[in-house]
Design brief:
- The complex is a heterodimer of chains A (about 210) and B (about 130).
- Chain A has helices at about 40-45, 55-60, 110, 130-140, 160-165, 180-205, and strands at about 25-30, 50-55, 75-85, 90-100, 115-120, 145-150, 175.
- Chain A has about 210 residues and is an alpha/beta fold.
- Chain A has one domain: P-loop containing nucleotide triphosphate hydrolases (Rossmann fold).
- In chain A, helix 1 packs across helix 6.
- Chain A starts with about 25 loop residues before the first strand and ends with a helix.
- With about 130 residues, chain B is mostly helical.
- Chain B has a single domain (about 20-125), classed as Arc Repressor Mutant, subunit A.
- Chain B has helices at about 20-25, 55-60, 70-75, 80-90, 100-110, 115-125; strands at about 40-45, 65-70, 95-100.
- In chain B, helix 3 (about 70-75) packs across helix 4.
- Chain B is elongated and about 45 Å long.
- Chains A and B meet through strand 1, helix 1, strand 2, helix 2 and strand 3 of A and helix 2, strand 2, helix 3, helix 5 and helix 6 of B.
Chain lengths: ~210, ~130
């Protein structure tokens, strides 16, 4: 019975406490291939030092074809970095950097369910890395924007070429960004929110 | 995924690692998995009591102010499935309150609240 003998500050630092009045939270997913800058973007815009939550595949992997018939459970742990932006005294936004590769999809159900929207982060040198994520978001009905992370040594293409290469419909916003910069990451999120806003108001105004 | 310094700043003694099935009382899936989203906010409604399991005490303490399930998972260093189970216990006894359940998130995602979207745009512009 050692419930009161500890002074360990397990939990957020004082400056990281949310207002007690916070009652609404919103989830946005930043998804993309390996090394495309997901964690960098989360870190740039987050007001807290990014945290990590993880999941093991033993539970969530049930039903995954690869495991069918495997007697001994394998444990794969996948970590997701996430950050936070407090919008006002009621509303807080959480941003999850989620690996886009197909082998991590066992994680996805819990992450994209209930997500307000997503940012698909791509690198012009490996555009195809973004395809699985875009397919999965479309299947899940999660609206998204595509942000091209401008690595200094990556080739720059006209937006129309990128749209064609990504097979991106006109209504999906495509923007450039520098995932290392707060203002740039913020602008990507603003593009997403305005996209959602336009869709929501267009729907509600439809006859 | 980038590796890096995962929770490296914490320096307390973790003690002997406890197997997850001990932490969760042998359960592997919370009935409330559908209730709790990663970003559902948890708020303590009670002080820790003698005899509570340490993880429950930690949750009640860290949730004096609202805290997301994901943050609870990160600070406890437990997978979110295990945290779901722990939180389900506390919810069942009304020791914590859950704000914005999974259902609320799914509903809000299908039909976004325009006022919330405005608040998000305004808030982001102030960053």
């Amino acid at each position: 019975m050692d419930y009161n003998d500890s002074e360990l500050p397990l939990g957020p630092r004082r400056e990281d406490l949310l207002p007690t009045s916070t009652e609404r939270s919103v989830k946005v997913v930043v998804v993309g291939g390996f090394g495309v800058g997901k964690t960098t973007m989360v870190r740039s815009v987050s007001e807290i030092r990014p945290l990590t939550t993880e999941e093991t595949m033993t539970q969530a992997g049930v039903g995954v074809d690869d495991l069918f018939g495997v007697e001994r459970k394998t444990e794969t742990t996948v970590a997701m970095d996430f950050g936070r932006i407090t919008l006002d005294d009621r509303l807080v936004l959480y941003l999850f950097g989620t690996p886009g590769q197909q082998r991590f999809w066992f994680l996805w159900n819990g992450v994209i369910a209930g997500a307000l929207g997503a940012v698909v982060l791509v690198d012009t040198r490996r555009l195809e890395d973004g395809f699985p994520a875009m397919d999965r978001l479309e299947q899940g009905g999660v609206p998204f924007v595509v942000a091209v992370n401008n690595f200094p040594d990556a080739p720059v293409y006209p937006a129309s070429d990128l749209r064609a290469a990504l097979d991106l419909p006109d209504h999906v916003p495509l923007v450039d960004c520098d995932a290392r910069r707060l203002d740039s990451g913020r602008d990507v999120l603003l593009t997403l929110m305005r996209h959602l806003y336009d869709s929501a108001t267009a729907t509600s105004e439809a006859p | 995924m980038s590796g890096g310094d995962r929770k490296g700043e914490r320096d307390w003694e973790e003690g002997t690692p406890v197997p997850l099935y001990v932490v969760t009382g042998g359960r592997t899936e919370a009935e409330d998995a559908q209730v709790l989203d990663l970003v559902t906010l948890i708020v303590a409604r009670s002080e820790p009591r003698p005899g509570m399991r340490p993880e429950h005490v930690s949750i009640l303490r860290m949730c004096a102010n609202p805290l997301s399930v994901a943050e609870v998972s990160a600070y406890l260093d437990l997978p979110f499935s295990a945290v779901h189970v722990l939180l389900a216990d506390l919810l069942a006894e009304s020791l914590v309150e859950a704000r914005q359940t999974r259902t609320a998130h799914v509903t809000a995602a299908v039909e976004p609240d325009v006022e919330i979207l405005k608040a998000l745009i305004d808030g982001l512009q102030r960053l």
